[in-house]
Amino acid sequence: MRRTVLTALAAVVALVGSGVLGATAATPALALDNGLALTPQMGFNNWNLTQCGSQFNEAFVEGIADTLVSTGLKDAGYQYVNLDDCWAQSSRDSKGNLVPDKKRFPHGIKAVADYVHSKGLKFGLYTSAGTKTCNKAGFPGALGHEKQDAALWASWGVDYLKYDNCNNQGQDAKKRYTAMRDALAATGRPILYSICEWGQNQPWTWAAPVGNSWRTTGDINDSYSKMLSIYKANIKLGKYAGPGHWNDPDMLEVGNGGMSDTEYRSHFTLWAMMAAPLLIGSDIRKASAATLTILRNADVIALDQDAKGVQGNEISSSDGLHVIRKPLANGDTAVALFNETGKTAKISTTLSAVGVSSGTHTLTDLWSKAKSTSSGTISASVPAHGTVVYRVH
Ligand code: GLA
């Protein structure tokens, strides 16, 4: 990975030197050099479903791992099974080590990680870059314990850390998150590093060499209005994202029941257009056919996971009608038409407005799978709160 980054950098330096890139070309942000999240991470996290409820336990987590496999979600790309807050006991042991909650995880965390690994999946854990986690019960955070905690997690087989921001004692965010980056690196185990400081210190301006992703906003909830406001904040930050370092508009609510299927399709499509981490947050053990159809839409997932690693941006946005464009590795372009409003509306753009060359192109609607051709206009009648997304070839 280090060699890839250096080679890429050398190529950019050569291009600048040769005058191919003008003096005004942006300096490429160096990503965290751990070789992970070259496309946005995909998996499951329990928080949006269980929070700290008693159903969050070993049987639940292992059931989720089983279901990822049996429903084909694993094959669709969802590989991390991540535990959020409330997995630990409220005090460290006499040696200062974190201790798993005995009721929820009677066989310890390593046993759960081993089970998840036995299914060909990866395992993630959570704590805060503070003295305590966010839950009011106050579980121990890792501030000042970075090396000891990282070493323990590595010994348990942890592959992913979500590092939150509660109880941070007013200490500098960049320092706190960098200390954990270095502690994770010191374990020698590849651990995907997900920064969760809610966009408070504009992590997009400093976190590319620190973490694999950073939350850009406060918490999502299972409502159309919250999903919409997070979309509007996150869509503006596209230039900061790329392979190994992504903007994170928070985890998916698809399937939790607070939005219609049309709204969940918008949520999923917009997250994919923004190259966001795709972490399922609903009970897939009981998912409806409609929920599984959304979460397993391989054509939409392919936009999120595209190797070019470009976050989509808005080409136009007026009166709640949004046109979003995402260039793709094979030269195709994804175009999403999102109707924020409460009434069906026609949304139109043109091939040239979304940067597609002249000539006749095939448009595939990635939800209905219908194909059409165009040499000029791209448009659709889009239902209230809905999104039509085309792959333009
Ligand atoms: C914060 C985070 C959430 C979740 C909770 C857990 O609010 O932003 O995603 O991890 O803490 O307490």
UniProtKB/TrEMBL annotation:
<dbReference type="Pfam" id="PF16499">
    <property type="entry name" value="Melibiase_2"/>
</dbReference>
<keyword id="KW-0732">Signal</keyword>
<dbReference type="InterPro" id="IPR000111">
    <property type="entry name" value="Glyco_hydro_27/36_CS"/>
</dbReference>
<dbReference type="GO" id="GO:0016052">
    <property type="term" value="P:carbohydrate catabolic process"/>
</dbReference>
<dbReference type="InterPro" id="IPR017853">
    <property type="entry name" value="GH"/>
</dbReference>
<feature type="domain" description="Alpha galactosidase C-terminal">
    <location>
        <begin position="319"/>
        <end position="392"/>
    </location>
</feature>
<dbReference type="InterPro" id="IPR041233">
    <property type="entry name" value="Melibiase_C"/>
</dbReference>
<dbReference type="InterPro" id="IPR002241">
    <property type="entry name" value="Glyco_hydro_27"/>
</dbReference>
<comment type="similarity">
    <text>Belongs to the glycosyl hydrolase 27 family.</text>
</comment>
<keyword id="KW-0378">Hydrolase</keyword>
<keyword id="KW-1015">Disulfide bond</keyword>
<dbReference type="InterPro" id="IPR013785">
    <property type="entry name" value="Aldolase_TIM"/>
</dbReference>
<dbReference type="GO" id="GO:0004557">
    <property type="term" value="F:alpha-galactosidase activity"/>
</dbReference>
<feature type="signal peptide">
    <location>
        <begin position="1"/>
        <end position="25"/>
    </location>
</feature>
<dbReference type="Pfam" id="PF17801">
    <property type="entry name" value="Melibiase_C"/>
</dbReference>
<dbReference type="InterPro" id="IPR013780">
    <property type="entry name" value="Glyco_hydro_b"/>
</dbReference>
<protein>
    <recommendedName>
        <fullName>Alpha-galactosidase</fullName>
        <ecNumber>3.2.1.22</ecNumber>
    </recommendedName>
</protein>
<keyword id="KW-0326">Glycosidase</keyword>
